[in-house]
Amino acid sequence: GTTVADALSGHTSTLTANTAAIALNTAKVSNKEYSTLLFGGDLDGTGRFALANGKSSDADDTSRPKTRQPCVAAGAITRVAWFSQFGHLTTTMKIHVDGVVGATFNLTGVSGSVAVSASVSAGSYVELEYDAGTGPEESTWNLTLELT
């Protein structure tokens, strides 16, 4: 099997990598290199878009311009956090960037957070769509934009 020295060496490499990742994230947070995009809506039917800067009690509607949230700078949407009434493992969501699907993800329950990857440019608009499965119903959403 593996020697104690080899096992310790492997753990040291992991610790070094994690320390570097933490330092990078700390620097980005302290330099304000993150932004957030907030949405809310009563997502009770597939194809519904959440409202930008809305509340979960607001009605959602694809014809309302408030479904679009502008990006302040170029970067990538790296994380989505939510709290919903009925979100479920079968709930599929889509992030649209300038009208094109940039990422698709499934919820992990009524609340949670998942990693995603959707590139944006400064001035891009982002929309959040309920696509399939159990409707999240009244919900609030926070998309993390990591600036480049």
In short:
The protein is an alpha+beta fold.
SSE layout and pairing:
Layout: H1 4-30, E1 34-43, E2 48-49, E3 51-52, E4 69-70, E5 75-84, E6 92-97, E7 100-106, E8 111-120, E9 125-132, E10 137-147
Antiparallel strand pairs: 1-3, 1-10, 2-9, 4-9, 5-8, 5-10, 6-7, 6-9
What does this entry look like structurally?
- Strands 3-1-10-5-8 form a five-stranded antiparallel sheet, with no helix packed on it.
- Helix content is 18%, strand content 46%.
- The chain is built from one helix and ten strands.
- It has 148 residues and is an alpha+beta fold.
- It is globular, with a radius of gyration of 18 Å.
Quick one: overall form? globular
Query: What structural class should be given to the helix and strand makeup?
Result: alpha+beta
What about the largest sheet?
5 strands, antiparallel
Total helical elements? 1
Assign a percent range to the helix content.
10-25%
Q: For the CA atoms, what is the radius of gyration?
A: 18 Å
Give the SSE order as H and E letters: HEEEEEEEEEE
- Mean of residue pLDDT values: 85
Approximately how much beta-strand content do the residues carry?
over 45%
Order of neighbouring strands in the sheet with most strands: 3-1-10-5-8
Q: Report how far the terminal alpha carbons are from each other.
A: 44 Å
Number of strands: 10
Low-pLDDT segments: none
